C-alpha cells in the first residue's frame, strides 16, 4: 500500500513539475542577430528534471518522510543549546588563533573576515529582531550609512579610520532613531515593509546624489586602516607597520589586522548584547517581544524602549559598515541592496531569534557555504534561496529556539521555544 | 476595616463614545481609600470600557479620572499616556492573562520594577560599564520579587517560564506582577474567571491581604475589580458600583446592593433575555 | 493641459497593472495574514510565460493580433497559476500555524529561488519584444503635442476591468468566494463548519497568481522589455498599493494601484524620473504612519 501511495504521489509531483518546467525550461527565448527574439527548445532538459523530481519524490515518500516523522516525534529541542557553552568557547578559540593555524592562507582569512562581518551584522540585527521583536527588513540601510559616513568623512575632511569608526556608529544610530521614531508604533509586517521602503529610499538617494556619493560609480580610494597610525604597505619605509616591528613587509599583515579588527568589533557587539540583556532595558526589550500591551500596563515607555533597540542595532550596523568601507577601499550602492537585508535577517532567523551562538553558526553555515559553492556560478543563488526555504520548513524556530533566563533564584534552565514569543511589532 | 471618607480614585462624569455608540454615559463614582471596590453589571454594561479608561487603554470622550497619589497630589489620569498612568500608581491585570510567557516568573516580577531599576542603572549606560549601584538595586528587586512569589505560593517555581504555570497560578502571578510596580490602586479585570472554587478562595484571601498590607511588606493597597462571580464580590468587597447600559444604577455596600430593586431588575432583565 | 491629460492616461494604465498585482497581495494577506514576498516574482514569471507564448505564436506565424493576445493571456494565466499553487504548497503550507517569521523568511527564499530560476533558465539579458498592437486614437492636439490613447492602453484598461469584474463575481457570488471570506474571518471556525481551508487557501494563491499573470502579460505588451528582476520593484509597489487602499480590501487594492500609478507617472513627468521610486516608497511610509488602515481598510480596535 505504501508503495502504491508513494508512486501515486510521485506521479502527481511529476505532473506538476512538468507544468512548471515545460514553458520556462522547455522553451527559451533568445535575442537573435536581428534583435528579434527566437525560440529554442530544450525538451531533454525538461524530461530530465521531471525524472529527477519523480525519483526524489518517490524516495521521499518511501524512506525519508517515514523516518523523519519518527525523528520528529522524539525530542528535537535545540542540540546546539545543550552543548552551547563549550561549543561557543571552542568557536571563540578557533577564531582567535585562526590566522596562526598552519595551512590557513590569505584567501581563507578573507573569507573569515566576510563571515565575521555577517556575524556582527547578525548580532546587531538580533538586538532589534531577536530581543525586541521588531521586524526590520531595511537593516542594510544602517550598514550603508556607516560605510558612506566613513568614506565621505575620510574623503572630505581627511579624518582617520579610528576617528570615523565611532562617528559612523553614532550617525547610523541617529538615522535609526530618525527613521524609527515615526514607524515604531506600526505592527509586525507593516513595520517590516516600511523599513524595507526606508532601506530602498536610502539606496536610491545614494545612487542618484551623484555630486556627493559618486552615484553608481561609488567612492573609491577610501583610506585603508592603519595600525594606530602605522600604515600597512609594501615599501618597508620607516613609519610603516612592517618597519616599526622589524618585519618583512607582507600583504598578509593588513589582512590579519583586518581580521582581528572585525573579530574585536564582533566580540564587542556580542559583549554589549549579552550584558545589556541582563539589564532592565534588555529585559524590557524581551518583555516587549512577549507582550507589548502588558509592558505599557507596567509603566514601560514602549516608544523609547523600542527606539533604544533600534538605535543600538543601527549603531552596530554602522560600525560594520565603516569596517566594510575600509576593507574594500571602494563602496557603491550595489553593495547595499535589499538582498543584503534579507540575508542578514535570514541569518538571524535561521540561527534562532535571540540566540547569539545560533546566529554565529548560521552566519558560518550560510556565508561559508555560499562561498564554498562559488563554482556553481549562477546556480548559487538558486541553491541559496532553496536552502532558506528548506531550513525554515524543517526548523521554523531556527537552530536554537530556546531562551536562557537572564536571572534565576536557583539554576538557570533553558526555556522551550513553545513558550517564547516572537513579537508582533 | 479601615474605610475612610477620602477617595483614592474619583471618576467624574466619564463618557465614552465609539462612533455612534454611547458605551459609557456620564458615570461618576469614587473608590474609597483602603477598600476593595467592585464594579459589576450585566454583560455589555460598560464595565470594561470604564476600566480601560481608568487604566489609559482608552481615551475617554468626556469627563475625568482623578487619582490621589501617595503624596496627596491629585493626578488627572485621562491626560496621561498609558505608561505614565502605571507610573502614577495604577496597576492592572487583564481578563485574558497577559504574562510574558517565555520569561520566568521571577523575570516577570523584575520587569514590573523596570522604572526604579532602570534609573539605578543610569539608564543603561552606567551599568554597562560596571559602575553605579545597579548590583544592590537588582538584589533588592529580586528580594522584593521573591517576597511576592512567597505570598502567592510560587517561590519554588520562580525559574519556570510563566507560560508553563497552571492557569490559577498564572492569575496570581499576574496580580503579583501588578503589585511589583508599587501601585496605590490595583485594578483587576475578572480575576476569578476560570478559577475553581478552591483557587477562588485563595484569590479572595490574597486580595484581602493586599488590601490590608499583610501579603508582603508592601503598604496596604486599594483595589478596584470587575467581577462576574457574585459570590466572591459579595464576600470581599467593601463597596460596590453597579453599571447597566453605560449608566450607574446603584452604589453602596454589598448588603444594600443585594436588595436594590434597580440592580435586581437589571440582572433579571438580562436573565430573561438569555 | 494636454501633457497632463496624456500623463493621466499613462498613469491609469500603469496603475491598473499595479492594481492587478495588489489584489494578489491583499487576498493572501487577508486569508493567511502574511506578506507573500514571492508574489512580485510570480508576476515576473507571468510576463516570461507570456513572452514565450507570444514569440511562439507570432514568430511561428500561427496567429497574430488580438486573438493571439487573448490566447497568450490564457496560457500565461494557466501556467503562472501553477507556480502560485506550487509556491504555497512548498514554502507556506508546511509552516501554517507556525512561528510568524518562518513563512516570511521562506517567502523571501522563494523569491530568490524564482528570480534565479528564471535567470538560469531564460538568461540574465533583457528580452525585447516588438510592439504587438501599435497605433492608437488621437484624442487631442495642442501645438505639436498629441494626446494619444494607444490601443495597448485600451487593451490594458478593458482587460483589467473584465478580469476584475469576473474576479469580483467569483469572490462575492460563488461558494468559493464565501469559503474564502469565511477563512479570512476565522480559519478555525471555517474548518469546523466543513470548509476545506487548505484547498481554499490554495485556490486563493491560484487566483492571485493568475491575476498577476494578467498583469505580467499586460506589462510585457505595454513596455516590451522584461528581465528576471522586474518582480521586485513591481511587487513592492503593488504591495504599497494594497496597503494604501487598505490591506484586505479588494476595491482598495485597485484604488491603491491606480493612485500609485498616477503618482509615479506625474512625479516622473513633473519632478524627477530618478526619484520616482522614492515617491512610491515615501507614500508607503506616509500612509502607514498616518493612516495604517489605508483608504478603504477596516479599523482595528485593540482588545485588552
Layout of helices and strands:
The complex is a heterotrimer of chains A (425), B (274) and C (304).
Chain A: H1 2-24, E1 27-31, E2 37-41, H2 43-73, H3 79-82, H4 84-97, H5 106-131, H6 140-157, H7 161-183, H8 188-208, H9 210-213, E3 219-220, H10 241-244, H11 251-277, H12 280-290, H13 292-297, H14 302-328, E4 330-331, H15 338-351, H16 356-372, H17 379-394
Antiparallel strand pairs in A: 1-2, 3-4
Helix pairs in contact in A: 1-2, 5-11, 5-14, 5-15, 5-16, 6-7, 6-8, 6-14, 7-14, 11-12, 11-14, 12-14, 15-16
Chain B: E1 7-18, E2 21-32, E3 36-40, H1 47-54, E4 62-68, E5 74-76, H2 82-88, E6 90-92, H3 105-111, H4 114-120, H5 125-128, H6 134-151, H7 167-179, E7 185-189, H8 197-212, E8 222-226, H9 230-236, E9 239-244, E10 247-252, H10 254-259, H11 261-273
Parallel strand pairs in B: 3-8, 3-9, 6-7, 7-8
Antiparallel strand pairs in B: 1-2, 1-4, 4-5, 9-10
Helix pairs in contact in B: 3-6, 3-7, 6-7
Chain C: H1 2-32, H2 39-59, H3 65-92, H4 101-122, E1 127-128, E2 136-142, E3 145-150, H5 151-173, H6 175-185, H7 187-192, H8 197-223, E4 225-226, H9 230-245, H10 250-270, H11 276-290
Antiparallel strand pairs in C: 1-4, 2-3
Helix pairs in contact in C: 1-5, 1-8, 1-9, 1-10, 2-3, 2-4, 2-8, 2-9, 3-8, 5-6, 5-8, 6-8, 9-10, 9-11, 10-11
Structure, described:
By secondary structure, chain A is mainly alpha-helical. Chain A is built from 17 helices and four strands. Chain A folds into two domains: 2-70; 95-374, no CATH class. Helices cover 67% and strands 3% of the residues of chain A. In chain A, the strands form two sheets. Chain A has a two-stranded antiparallel sheet. A two-stranded antiparallel sheet of chain A has the order 3-4. Chain A starts with a helix and ends in a 31-residue tail after the last helix. Residues 72-78 of chain A have low confidence and may be disordered. Chain B contains eleven helices and ten strands. In chain B, a hairpin with a 2-residue loop joins β1 (7-18) and β2. In chain B, α3 (105-111) packs across α6 and α6 (134-151) packs across α7. Chain C is mainly α. Chain C has one domain. The termini of chain C are far apart. The B-C interface holds B 18, 52, 57, 94-95, 98 and C 301-302, 304.
Alpha-carbon Rg of chain A, integer = 25 Å
> What is the strand arrangement across the widest sheet of chain A?
1-2
Which structural class do you get from the secondary structure elements of chain A? mainly alpha
What is the CATH T-level topology of the largest domain in chain B?
Rossmann fold
Counting structural domains of chain B, the number is 2
Can you give the helix content of chain B as a percent range? 25-40%
Radius of gyration of chain B: 19 Å
- Name the poorly predicted regions of chain B: none
Terminal Cα span of chain A: 48 Å
What is the terminal-to-terminal distance of chain B?
A: 38 Å
Portion in helices of chain A: 55-70%
Report the portion of residues of chain B in β strands.
15-25%
Q: Count all strands of chain A and give the number.
A: 4
What does the largest sheet of chain A look like?
2 strands, antiparallel
CATH class of the largest domain in chain B: Alpha Beta
Mean pLDDT of chain B: 85
| Class based on secondary structure composition and strand pairing of chain B | alpha/beta
Domain ABC transporter (chain B): 9-270
GO biological process, one term (chain B): L-valine import across plasma membrane
Pfam family, one (chain B): BCA_ABC_TP_C
InterPro entries (chain B): AAA+_ATPase (IPR003593), ABC_AA/LPS_Transport (IPR051120), ABC_transporter-like_ATP-bd (IPR003439), BCA_ABC_TP_C (IPR032823), P-loop_NTPase (IPR027417)
